[in-house]
Every structure is written in structure tokens, then in C-alpha cells.
Design goal:
Order of helices and strands: EEEHEHEEEEEHEHHHEHEHEHEHHHH
Number of strands: 14
Helix content: 25-40%
Strand order of the largest sheet: 3-4-5-10-11-12-13-14
Number of helices: 13
Strand content: 15-25%
Structural class: alpha/beta
Distance between the termini: 26 Å
Largest sheet: 8 strands, parallel, barrel
């Protein structure tokens, strides 16, 4: 059963024993101050080492780029040491893990950044509220990144990639999805620039190209991936012609020979996107010849069908991996998935409850 899901696959230089990947999941368990990964996080990730590949939770490349309570960073030596404990635990359990590199752009509230506004391609403001250490607050207008500062942000990506290498990861993934900084540059509702970073779809992919090139300069293309979300409005970030925009982005990823591209395309119950917007994955599949990973709201049967039909090469599972640390074994045995409980509170609040206390299938049966 599900034979296609259990075929090995190589993402560039990363060998994956199966095609059941763990999607990036923000969980808010890092230690403050400093946003440092800890032993509880090492336990959490090692419990899920049966995934063909673990893509880590989104991880801030700089203080300026991180605006989520208790999410980890990768800019300090202390953070590198904390992540090294995580990668050691995953590798000891037989797994593979890449670090997702995150700059939230205009979604960083000033409370996270010493009172300074977040940065974005243009001086726009996200709708809704930010989750801050002192409660929910309205988003505030971002500061437009001047041309002279863009190289500094690209260098932050390069330094984060170097730190990920020091921490023992198997590679990195650029977070280019869900309305964060790279996505803000890609889409014409948030990128109002009239210079070489704005205007045409090709110009709006320039920041994506430069960020990916910085990661490739550290890791080589064979250990670099990228996540995109070509699925309509997300956190106030939208585009008038997603086929043109994300087609241009796919051409950049193809030209740079990036090892894998993950697409988030929500189903009816998904988040971060308008599920009525036509999916762009068939177009992107025709333009990008590397390994394509699809994500969001999959069942095992749907994942098997899409891999068998050639629509993708692997599937990344998100919420099922929260409550099923041995998701690959449950799929192999045709066992039901354990449900998430006490959600969404247990997704994000500190502590082991709803994080490292979900039983494996063997433990369930023994009980």
C-alpha cells in the first residue's frame, strides 16, 4: 500500500529514503531571550526523524526579520549551538533535516525590532494583528528598503546559511511563501517599486534570485530548496497575474538549478491562501525540471495519487506531523492518524503539552 510514497528520492545531494516529508511548522518553543533552540526541540524533531526529509520550522535570519513569539533564530552563536543539538539528535535517529530561512518583512512588528518598523519592498501595511510578546497589536506600516540596503539583507541570508552549515544541517530552504519578505517582493500588491526590483514579473523576482544565489554560494545548488505559495491572497499579499509572476519565479529556480521546490497550495480547509484561485503547480511543473514537492491538506491516498501521476515527486505533511511523530509508519501500516488535540493553543504555546507528548502507534497499541 502506498508504494510510491516509500520509494527513495534524491533532492540534489540529499538522499531521502521515502517521499513523506515533514513540512515547516512554526511551533514557538525556542528559549527567550535570544530565541535559542533547546533540548525539547531536539526531542520533537528526533521523534519525527522517520520522515524522508524534515524541513525545519521557519527560522529568523536576523532580529530584523523575526516577528513571531518564541520562534527560533540562526544569527547568533548561541542559536547555532542550540540548532546543533537538534541536528545531532535527528541524525542519531537516522533522519535528515534542512533549515528554513525566514525574513518576515512587513509582518515584523516594531516590538520585536527595538521599536523600529519592519522592512518591505514598499511602504505598505499588512492587515490584521501581529502576535507580540505583550499581546495582539495592529500591524504598522513598513519601511521601504532602499536600494543601498538590499545587499545588507542578502548578506543576512548568506550569514544565516553559513550558520546553518555550522549547525550541522543537511541543507537549507529559502522561505519565499505566505506573504513574508520574498513573497512581498514577488507580488504586485506589496511591491510598488519603480526600480530594478519592481514593475515586471522578471524584475520582481530579482530579490528571490539574489537570496537564492547567496544560499547557493554557501551550500551549492544541490543542497538548497525554496518554498513558494502561488495561491492567491495571503496575509494581505496578492498578485494580479499569478501565472506570470510565479512562472517567472519558476524560471529563476530552474536557471539556478535549485535542488527542490516546495509549493504550498491549500485545500478547502487550508490557511494562507484563497482556495478558489486556480493552482499554479501544473504550470510550474512544466517550467521547473528539479524535484517538486507539494504541500497542504493531503491525505496519504491523495499524496500517493499525485506522485504516481507525476504531478509531484514528494509531498510534505504539516499538521498531521504535529500529532503523529511516526507518520511514515502509520501510513505504511494503513493506521489512522491521531488527531490534534487542544488546538490551536497547543500549536504555539510554550511547554511540552501538544508538542512532544503525542504517542507513537506502538505506544498507543501497548496502552
Amino acid at each position: 500500500m502506498h508504494d510510491a510514497l516509500f520509494q527513495p528520492i534524491d533532492l540534489g545531494a540529499i538522499h531521502c529514503p521515502n517521499r513523506i516529508f515533514m513540512a515547516p511548522l512554526t511551533r514557538g518553543r525556542a528559549t527567550a531571550p535570544g530565541m535559542v533552540p533547546n533540548e525539547m526541540m531536539a526531542t520533537y524533531y528526533s521523534q519525527r526523524a522517520g520522515a524522508g526529509l524534515i524541513i525545519s520550522e521557519a527560522t529568523g535570519i536576523s532580529q530584523e526579520g523575526l516577528g513571531w513569539p518564541f520562534a527560533p533564530g540562526i544569527w547568533s552563536d548561541e542559536q547555532v549551538d542550540g540548532w546543533a543539538r537538534v541536528t545531532d539528535a535527528v541524525h542519531e535517529a537516522g533522519g535528515r533535516i534542512v533549515l528554513q530561512l525566514w525574513h518576515m518583512g512587513r509582518l515584523v512588528h516594531a516590538d520585536f525590532n527595538d521599536g523600529k518598523p519592519g522592512v518591505s519592498p514598499s511602504a505598505t501595511c499588512a492587515p490584521g494583528h501581529a502576535h507580540t510578546p505583550t499581546g495582539r497589536k495592529d500591524y504598522e506600516p513598513a519601511r521601504e528598503l532602499p536600494l543601498a540596503e538590499i545587499p545588507r539583507v542578502i548578506e543576512d541570508y548568506a550569514k544565516a546559511a553559513e550558520n546553518a552549515r555550522r549547525a550541522g544541517f543537511d541543507g537549507v530552504q529559502l522561505h519565499g511563501a505566505n506573504g513574508y519578505l520574498v513573497d512581498q517582493f514577488l507580488r504586485d500588491s506589496t511591491n510598488l517599486r519603480e526600480d530594478e526590483y519592481g514593475g515586471s514579473p522578471e524584475n520582481r523576482t530579482r530579490f528571490l534570485r539574489e537570496a537564492l544565489s547567496a544560499l547557493i554560494g554557501v551550500w551549492g545548488p544541490e543542497r538548497v530548496g525554496v518554498r513558494l505559495s502561488p495561491n492567491g491572497e495571503t496575509q494581505g499579499c496578492d498578485d494580479s497575474d499569478p501565472a506570470a509572476t510565479f512562472g517567472a519565479a519558476a524560471r529563476v529556480v530552474e536557471e539556478l538549478k535549485v535542488a527542490f521546490l516546495e509549493l504550498r497550495e491549500p485545500g478547502p480547509d487550508g490557511t494562507f491562501g484563497n482556495t478558489d484561485v486556480p493552482k499554479q503547480s501544473p504550470l510550474i511543473r512544466s517550467l521547473y525540471s528539479g524535484k517538486l514537492v507539494l504541500n497542504s491538506d493531503y491525505t496519504a491516498e491523495q499524496a500517493e495519487a499525485d506522485i504516481t501521476a507525476g504531478r509531484c515527486d514528494a509531498v510534505s505533511f504539516g499538521r498531521p506531523y504535529i500529532s503523529n511523530p511516526d507518520l511514515d509508519l502509520r501510513i505504511a501500516e494503513g493506521a489512522p492518524f491521531a488527531p490534534n488535540v487542544n488546538v490551536p493553543v497547543s500549536w504555539y504555546l510554550p511547554g511540552p503539552e501538544g508538542y512532544v507528548d503525542y504517542p507513537t502507534l506502538a505506544e498507543e497499541r501497548a496502552a
